[in-house]
UniProtKB/TrEMBL annotation:
GO MF annotations in UniProt: 4 iron, 4 sulfur cluster binding; DNA-deoxyinosine glycosylase activity; metal ion binding; uracil DNA N-glycosylase activity
Protein name, per record: Type-5 uracil-DNA glycosylase
Keywords: 4Fe-4S, DNA damage, DNA repair, Hydrolase, Iron, Iron-sulfur, Metal-binding
Domain of life of the organism encoding this protein: Bacteria
Family annotation (SMART domains): UDG, UreE_C
Listed GO biological process terms: base-excision repair
């Protein structure tokens, strides 16, 4: 079942959210002041919805949009170095039409993959508060419910995303083990309800520049999840 209409409506509602005053102020201030390198851009400056088909079999859950990445371009992991690493890996695995993601009109297509985040607004210092995470959770829950008919695997990037994703998955109808499984790179948790959950270090510059997360490590995790989802 492809609920593309329902997901499109959800994406529109997400992009209009003003629930968190600190995040609203920050994302709009960044959009006004801009970064010198992007002075000629009209920044998105709003919450960034998920991206990918409504019948996705694999979901990738990150942290939040980057101030001069998703907050500028309007697409998750687009226009920053984290996205460069992620989309290159998806392209290498045959899950994306191109290895780069630079703008909404760049022609990128994802094959069976939906990319989203537990927080849809760019936060100061890339650090949402627990309260902001919890306020944003209903959007992720609704997205997961809409994806549920086809979703077979989820890769969560980083510990923050993992902590946010577990209760969202529970609310969306999957059974998460108790005690809740700990995050770790390479963690694999089969959930009741037919979903395989995987942990992966975040594609942040801190991790990729230091070698904590290499392209090979990322491809291995995404490839394993894609195979579990029936995409390879």
């Amino acid at each position: 079942m492809d609920d593309s209409g329902g997901l499109a409506r959800l994406d529109r509602r997400v992009s209009e959210c003003r629930a968190c005053p600190r995040l609203v102020e920050w994302r709009e201030e960044v959009a006004r002041t801009k970064r010198a390198a992007f002075a000629d851009w009209t920044y998105w400056g709003r919450p960034v919805p998920g991206y990918g088909p409504a019948d996705a079999r694999l979901a990738i859950i990150g942290l939040a949009p980057a101030a001069h990445g998703g907050n500028r371009t309007g697409r998750m992991f687009t226009g920053d170095r984290s996205g460069d690493v992620l989309y290159q890996a998806l392209y290498d695995l045959g899950l994306a039409s191109q290895p780069t993601s630079v703008a909404l009109d760049d022609g990128l297509e994802l094959y069976g993959v939906r990319v989203t985040a537990p927080v849809h607004c760019a936060p100061p210092a890339n650090k949402p508060t627990p309260g902001e995470r919890d306020t944003c959770r209903p959007w992720l829950v609704q997205e997961l419910k809409l994806l549920r008919p086809t979703l077979r695997a989820v890769v969560v990037l980083g510990a923050f995303g993992w902590q946010a994703a577990l209760p969202a998955l529970t609310e969306a109808g999957w059974t998460v083990p108790r005690p809740r499984p700990a995050f770790g790179h390479g963690a694999h948790v089969p959930l009741e309800g037919g979903l395989d959950l995987y942990g992966c270090f975040h594609v942040s510059q801190r991790n990729t520049f230091t070698g904590r997360l290499t392209p090979e490590m990322l491809r291995e995790t995404l490839g394993t999840a894609a195979q579990a989802a029936g995409l390879r």
